[in-house]
């Protein structure tokens, strides 16, 4: 608990309640379904931990109050509490919770309430997964009245406050691990892998189970367990050598309703099968994959499928054989189809060697240019995975124009929870506000209201199809508190909550996470100051980070390779092709249709026109779309150069303020957690000064224009 290992599931003791309230002394759960069993044991564990007494689990109804867990089809006891219409409103993984009367725990404990007989609270779903999510909902609620619609009414104990229907907006809610079998994690900032060490699988199943609990608690139901860059050892994950281990891991996650996926090496037929080609149209290649799929599914019958990074950053793919990506994806999809497997095919395909003199080639265009022409050519079990922005998880990017442009292809939106370019879990950067902006962005693909969240859930183009949703790159590792920076847990929590319900606000999610994590800690006991102060720190942090790093949407001013710390020209002199083109006259990338790369033309109207002109382009994306002089006047009324100075001076101050705020909470936090976070915030405050100075000096020297406020520039 002290270390943060239990994260938002620490279920701290409610000191106001002496013993287990009457209504939760028995949990009735029928059947042997393992997900239902997980739900019951989580509920038992949570209640025990919060109320200091263990509820019983019973397979049959009892003659005292009880909580019933079950699915509509299998459990008449559960079904009879909901009308046919109410049952029909619950989707495959949704849930309904009903408590006829749900007294305040303190009240019911002190009054015994044993006169109430029979079923008191019912948690029901179409499937056991739905029930599991419902249990986590109830536990969240009990930890602090956490649902906006379920505010605890401490005074009015007999109000029927629990009547809740919740369906996930997205069918697929997934996490990608970039873990390698040697135990390292590509872009991992919280220690080594919890899955592998030394080219073997972990034996620590307990840790995996706790990870499964964390994921299930926020509704995650799909997980790919190895890096999309599939190196030599990992190529063998789909062979006898490792399949038994994959099966063991799959079993741990299955009990929490989570399906496992494997990232595969597109060149496997060559590397494992001894073929001379991986050409998707070569029959021997297709046959090889069919046999392989049979073998894989014999070992793990409910494997979700394969994740594929092909023809990207030097990985093999169909381009080597003059084939396009639908050829490659469909060939694999046909192999997995008999087993219900999916192919998740990434759209992160671009030319990573670009000449700086060539102002037409544009990495931002690449995903659209490659995949738009293939729209409609993919099999039913292929899903294209598209990063939120056209570049690569920068602190600020426009939304990828491929969303909305693909009308007949199933898609997943890819976020990155790992803070690769946003402070690597050393800096505080709560990313939910950024994700919210993406999800709420209106593409106008089918007129007003064609938001990203409606596109990625399938609601806009394909309401009947279920192969849609959101995926994100994991930020966890073997560090005891999972995420290195304790406060970075909020990003994992927030991601899951948002994937379930994109209409939740960044504020609501921060509020939940802070209450669950710190609610009854130290001597605070959920003091409102602590909660609102911490919440504000989270909500400010993305903006703070942006202000002292790369300005106005230009991105990429980080050290090449490891991507940490300021290096304004680091990528400017690398062939990777992410130039900002700063010189003594100006800065930014001309991506207009009129004079630039034409990227702005990939959007629907009116976005395309908004981005095309400096008159309408939002300030925060100006340098993404336009090359302008330093004296260019922003909508804010400031020049570009003065904006750079101002935001960098302020940003460093605000970073120091984050640290000072944390220090002011010292008395309310437990010592171990306080120290962990303090260390990071100290570092951030120092590092923000370095960012400030490097950026300000660079632009002062380039532009020769002094700061209006005459602050020190080195
Ligand atoms: O963000 C970039 C990373 C690479 C990563 C790649 C990708 C797994 O810098 O490390 O590779 O994206 O998404 O494939």
From TrEMBL:
Domain Glycosyl hydrolase family 67 catalytic: 161-482
Keyword field: Carbohydrate metabolism, Glycosidase, Hydrolase, Polysaccharide degradation, Xylan degradation
Pfam families (alphabetical): Glyco_hydro_67C, Glyco_hydro_67M, Glyco_hydro_67N
InterPro entries found in the cross-reference section: A-glucoronidase_C_sf, GH, Glyco_hydro_67_aGlcAse, Glyco_hydro_67_aGlcAse_N, Glyco_hydro_67_C, Glyco_hydro_67_cat, Hex-like_dom2
Enzymatic class: hydrolase
All residue ranges annotated as the Alpha glucuronidase N-terminal domain in the record: 7-138
Catalytic activity annotation: Hydrolysis of (1->2)-alpha-D-(4-O-methyl)glucuronosyl links in the main chain of hardwood xylans
Domain Glycosyl hydrolase family 67 C-terminal, chain residue ranges per copy: 483-711
Listed EC numbers: 3.2.1.131
Highest taxon, organism lineage: Bacteria
Positions of transmembrane segments: none
Alphabetized PANTHER family for the sequence: ALPHA-GLUCURONIDASE A
Record text on subunit structure and interactions: Homodimer.
The family this protein is said to belong to: Belongs to the glycosyl hydrolase 67 family.
Protein name: Xylan alpha-1,2-glucuronidase
Organism for this UniProt entry: Paenibacillus polymyxa
């Amino acid at each position: 608990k002290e270390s943060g290992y239990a994260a938002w599931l620490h279920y701290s003791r409610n000191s106001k309640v002496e013993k287990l309230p009457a209504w939760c002394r028995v949990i009735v759960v029928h059947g042997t379904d393992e997900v239902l069993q997980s739900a019951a044991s989580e509920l038992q564990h949570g209640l025990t931990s919060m109320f200091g007494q263990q509820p019983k689990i019973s397979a049959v109804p009892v003659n005292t109050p009880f909580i019933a867990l079950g699915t509509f089809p299998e459990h008449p006891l559960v079904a009879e509490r909901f009308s046919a219409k109410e049952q029909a409103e619950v989707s495959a993984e949704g849930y309904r919770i009903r408590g006829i009367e749900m007294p305040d725990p303190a009240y019911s404990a002190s009054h015994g309430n044993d006169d109430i007989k029979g079923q008191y609270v019912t948690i029901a779903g179409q499937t056991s997964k739905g029930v599991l999510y419902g249990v986590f909902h109830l536990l969240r609620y009990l930890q602090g009245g956490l649902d906006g619609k379920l505010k605890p009414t401490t005074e009015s104990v007999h109000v029927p406050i629990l009547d809740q229907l919740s369906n996930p907006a997205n069918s697929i809610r997934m996490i990608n691990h970039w873990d390698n079998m040697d135990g390292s994690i590509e872009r991992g900032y919280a220690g080594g892998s919890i899955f592998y060490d030394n080219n073997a699988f972990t034996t620590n199943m307990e840790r995996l189970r706790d990870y499964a609990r964390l994921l299930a608690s926020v509704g995650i139901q799909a997980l790919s367990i190895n890096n999309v860059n599939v190196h030599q050892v990992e190529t063998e994950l789909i062979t006898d050598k490792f399949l038994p281990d994959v099966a063991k891991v799959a079993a741990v996650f299955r009990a929490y309703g989570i399906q496992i996926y494997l990232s595969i090496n597109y060149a496997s037929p060559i590397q494992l099968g001894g073929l001379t080609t991986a050409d998707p149209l070569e029959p021997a290649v297709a046959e090889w994959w069919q046999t392989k799929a049979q073998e894989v599914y014999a070992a793990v019958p409910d494997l979700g499928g394969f994740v594929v990074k092909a023809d990207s950053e030097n990985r093999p793919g169909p381009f080597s054989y003059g084939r396009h990506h639908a050829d490659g994806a469909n060939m694999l999809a046909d192999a997995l189809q008999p087993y219900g497997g999916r192919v998740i095919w990434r759209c992160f395909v671009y030319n990573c060697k670009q000449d700086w003199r060539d102002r037409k080639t544009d990495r931002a265009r690449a995903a659209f240019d490659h995949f738009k022409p293939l729209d409609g050519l993919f099999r039913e079990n292929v899903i294209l995975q598209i990063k939120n922005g056209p570049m690569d998880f920068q602190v600020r990017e426009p939304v990828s124009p491929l969303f909305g442009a693909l009308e007949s292809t199933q898609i997943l939106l890819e976020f990155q929870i790992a803070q690769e370019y946003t402070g690597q879990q050393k800096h505080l950067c709560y990313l939910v506000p950024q994700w919210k902006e993406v999800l709420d962005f209106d593409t106008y693909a089918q007129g007003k209201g064609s938001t990203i969240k409606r596109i990625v859930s399938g609601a806009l183009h394909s309401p009947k199809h279920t192969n849609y949703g959101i995926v994100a790159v994991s930020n966890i590792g073997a560090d005891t508190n999972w995420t290195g920076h304790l406060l970075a847990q909020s990003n994992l929590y927030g991601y899951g909550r948002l994937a379930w319900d994109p209409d939740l606000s960044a504020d609501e999610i921060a509020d939940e996470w802070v209450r669950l994590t710190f609610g009854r800690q130290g001597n605070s006991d959920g003091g409102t100051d602590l909660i609102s102060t911490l919440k504000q720190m989270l909500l400010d942090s993305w903006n703070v980070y942006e202000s002292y790093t790369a300005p106005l949407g230009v991105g990429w001013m980080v050290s090449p390779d490891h991507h940490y710390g300021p290096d304004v020209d680091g990528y400017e002199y690398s062939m990777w092709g992410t130039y900002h083109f700063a010189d003594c006259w100006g800065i930014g990338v001309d991506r207009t249709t009129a004079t630039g790369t034409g990227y702005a033309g990939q959007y629907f109207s009116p976005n395309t026109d908004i981005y095309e002109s400096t008159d309408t382009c939002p300030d925060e994306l100006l340098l993404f779309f336009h090359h302008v002089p330093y004296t260019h006047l922003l909508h804010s009324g400031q020049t570009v150069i003065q904006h750079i100075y101002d935001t960098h001076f302020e940003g460093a101050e605000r970073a120091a303020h984050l640290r000072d705020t944390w220090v002011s909470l010292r008395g309310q936090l437990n010592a171990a957690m306080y120290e962990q976070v303090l260390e990071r915030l100290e570092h951030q405050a120092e590092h923000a000064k370095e960012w400030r100075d490097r950026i300000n000096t660079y632009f002062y020297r380039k532009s020769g224009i002094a700061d209006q406020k005459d602050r020190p520039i080195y």
